[in-house]
Amino acid sequence: MPKLIKDGVIVENTWELIAKPEGDAAEVAVPAGQVILPLSVWKAQQATLAGRTDVGVWLDSDEIAEDIGEIANCFPVIGVNFPGFMDGRAFSTAHILRQRYGFTGELRAVGNFIRDQLCYLRRCGVNAFAFANPEADLEVAVKSLADFSEYYQASVDQPLPLFRRRA
Predict the structure, then answer these.
(1) 59 three-class SS
(2) Residues 6+ away with beta carbon under 8 Å from 5
(3) How confident is the chain (167 residues) per 10-residue block, as mean pLDDT?
């Protein structure tokens, strides 16, 4: 079973990430068990999936937090996708889900982010990291969560700026 980093610990990944369909999203067969669906599939099959507590959703970089904002807390897990490590739109999506919509569940980075981004993703509210590269060294990646010991700015993980914490 693949592994991921969740809350700073390497754990088994029990959720299956379903790829974006090439055809009609309403025709995708959603398997039983813990699945993270593309937003298009969830929207197309929302009526039949509404009662399931084992369904999460993932947002691609061209989809925005407002697409699920008010109902975000209905999902146990929300993924934010990085199609490439230079595409930073998922940082904003994560921050908006936590700050504006108060999402309290697992917020998972998926795709092609890199180890150097983990610290900053956590500051935006991401608490789980599923690397696209199965060869990624998770032990080294966990250590990168502590790359910096102090920050000047406020963020999701530290709501007070440094000057307020020192006062």
Answers:
(1) strand
(2) 11, 118, 128, 129, 138, 141, 142, 145
(3) 94 96 91 96 92 94 93 96 88 95 97 92 95 92 87 80 80
User: What is the three-class DSSP state of 156?
Assistant: coil
Question: Can you spell out the DSSP letters for 62-113?
Answer: TS-GGGTGGGGGG-SEEEEEESSTT--HHHHHHHHHHHTT---SEEEEEES-
pLDDT on residue 154: 77
The secondary structure of residue 15, as a DSSP letter, is P
Other Cβ atoms closer than 10 A to 27: 10
Partners of 3 in the β-ladder: 12
What phi and psi values does residue 2 have, to the nearest 5 degrees? -65, 160
Q: Using the Cα atoms of residue 102, residue 104, residue 110 and residue 113 in order, give the sign of their dihedral.
A: positive
The amino acid at 63? E
> Smallest Cα–Cα separation from 78: which of 104, 46, 52, 48?
104
